[in-house]
TrEMBL record:
The chain crosses the membrane at residues 43-60, 80-99, 120-142, 162-183, 190-210, 260-278. Keywords: Membrane, Transmembrane, Transmembrane helix. One of its GO terms (cellular component) is plasma membrane. Pfam families: ABC2_membrane_2. The keyword Transmembrane applies. This is ABC-type transport system, Hypothetical permease component, C-terminus. One of its GO terms (molecular function) is ABC-type transporter activity.
Length: 284
């Protein structure tokens, strides 16, 4: 449902709330970033959606605090920061970013101005990245504020919020980049349906399969699986392995270079491939 709303608002915004008849600034990327992405209704819709998803974590935080006290609350925070259901929107968001703009003619109109393809591509991705940043900040802030409200210590809460908020943002960037790759490989409903399938696979099916099948060797196996949700799950389990124990320090959180690499490297690969596809695409 969320992805379809994003698709419709994207198509409506093809008519653009800003006038494409006006000259495009020579700074290109910044002009697109401000005129298209930030003014898009899907930008605001995503931020609101993440706030709602964070609100749904309230029940689990309450439960862990009631039964296990402050240690239980702190051990739950990294898991709550993994971004429940958010990838199901982010991947389709990326999957409709390029092909919808090509199909409705927005790209052709923009490129008739003094803009290059890389300006459009980079501007669109920067705009979506900013939406992810604001959504992630809202998500993490809600969980942190509520945790402090019910009794979590401020210093430890701040530490966990910074670390796992950053990990969530890198995870969502990977989903977005994969969506951009899908957007350059296929059109319309095919891209959207593929994105929804991959979001389910990477966010639910693969992590569940790996955790249940390789529990004893989870940390070593996860290094080879490009699933952001799995990497977040593994890091969360390493930090807070027991709901009765407080999480470890930030230094120990980040002492998992293989898992961190699987959050960052696929993002760069997906972006590079999607740019190569878009650069050679027929936009007519």
């Amino acid at each position: 449902m969320g992805s379809e709303i994003f698709r419709r608002t994207e198509l409506r915004n093809a008519r653009l709330n800003v006038s494409l008849a006006a000259p495009v600034p020579s700074r290109g990327i910044t002009g697109l970033f401000l005129k298209i992405s930030v003014h898009s209704k899907r930008f605001l819709a995503f931020v609101v959606f993440t706030g709602f998803m964070a609100f749904l974590q309230k029940g689990s935080l309450d439960k862990y605090f009631t039964y296990y006290g402050i240690p239980g609350l702190l051990s739950r925070m990294p898991h709550a920061m993994c971004g429940f259901m958010v990838p199901l929107v982010v991947l389709p968001l990326g999957a409709m970013a390029v092909n919808s703009a090509v199909e409705n003619g927005t790209v052709r109109v923009l490129l008739s101005k003094p803009l290059r393809r890389r300006d459009f591509f980079a501007g669109s991705f920067l705009g979506d990245s900013l939406a992810l940043f604001l959504g992630t900040a809202l998500y993490a802030s809600f969980i942190a504020t509520y945790s402090v409200h019910i009794g979590a210590p401020v210093s430890k809460t701040f530490e966990l919020t910074i670390v796992f908020g950053a990990l969530l943002y890198f995870s969502l960037l990977q989903y977005l980049a994969l969506g951009y790759l899908l957007s350059t490989l296929s059109k319309g409903k095919v891209s959207l349906l593929t994105a929804l399938f991959l979001a389910f696979l990477l966010d639910f099916a693969v992590p569940l399969l790996i955790v249940t099948s390789w529990r004893d060797n989870l940390f070593s196996v996860a290094h080879y699986i490009p699933s952001p949700s799995l990497q977040n799950m593994v890091i969360s389990m390493a930090v807070a392995p027991n709901r009765g124990l407080p999480p470890k320090s930030v230094g120990e959180v980040l002492n998992l270079p293989g898992n961190l690499a699987m959050l960052l490297l696929p993002t760069l690969l997906y972006l590079a491939l999607s740019w190569l596809r878009f650069r050679k695409a027929d936009l007519r």
